[in-house]
Amino acid sequence: MKSTIKSVKSIAAVILMLSLAFNSYSQTSKFSIAVNSLTTNFNYGHANAELKSYKKNYQGLQAGFSYQAGITPAFSIVPELYFAMKGASLKTNNPLTVNKSTVRTYSLELPVLARFHINRLHINAGPYTAYNLGGRIKTEGSATTPESSAKIHFGNNGTDFKRWDVGFQAGAGYDFKLKRSTLALDVRYGYGLVSISNDVERYNRMLNISLQMSSAAVKAKK
User: Fold this and answer.
1) Phi, psi at 26, each rounded to 5°
2) In the chain, how many H helices and how many E strands?
3) Which of 4, 137, 170, 190 could in theory staple to 125 by disulfide, Cβ–Cβ 3.0 to 4.6 A?
4) Which CATH number fits domain 2-215: 2.40.160.20, 2.30.30.90, 3.40.50.920, 3.20.20.190?
5) CA-to-CA distance for 157 and 153, rounded, in angstroms?
6) Residue 94's beta-bridge partner residues?
7) 11: exposed, middle or buried (C-beta count within 10 Å: 0-12, 13-18, 19+)?
């Protein structure tokens, strides 16, 4: 786990250094702000395959900043920083909690993407790291059990969650050129590589369809 996080951080640091080094040659540099809805869920691993039919998507939220550092007219590096609300639900009568339950997490996420431009179309791919700030687990009540809602605890105990998440994002988008800015439609899938809990495997899965408003592109310096 620690070695994986260190490797991703090292890759991100190298990419960021390259983006700064080559930014003076940019023809597509721009700063974007995004606030959008996320569709998220968990993959519970092979040991809990029976939970698949009880899974229900969770509608979360993402808000943050993106900077597209153009290396060439056809290639950019895109570091981003977001606050994200993710989670997942299990329907009633599931083998894990019996009653319907929902896990909600709050995290800071840092994707660093390679972006390829084909006219107004772009294709993204790259790693992300995330730090879980907190969260809650809510379980609905029944005739014999009351409803419960508790904060997530982080640590190494059996029912604790983990602070760090590492994964991969990939997708594509399209830029709509406005008079003084650009409106980008970006569709992206996130694939978590690390289970964020100890007792049950929970790997983050995310579908992100966002609209990003950005400043006008910075032209290359000669």
Assistant:
1) -70, 140
2) 1, 10
3) 170
4) 2.40.160.20
5) 9
6) 98
7) middle
Q: What is the DSSP letter of 98?
A: B
What distance lies between CA 87 and its chain's CA centroid? 11
CA distance 63 to 86: 12
* pLDDT value of residue 221: 45
d(CA 222, CA 219): 9
Residue 156 token pair = 């190494």
pLDDT digit string (tens) for 77-129? 999 999 999 999 999 999 999 999 999 999 999 999 999 999 999 999 999 99
158-176 confidence digits (pLDDT tens): 889 999 999 999 999 999 9
Torsional sign, CA 16, 39, 57, 55: negative
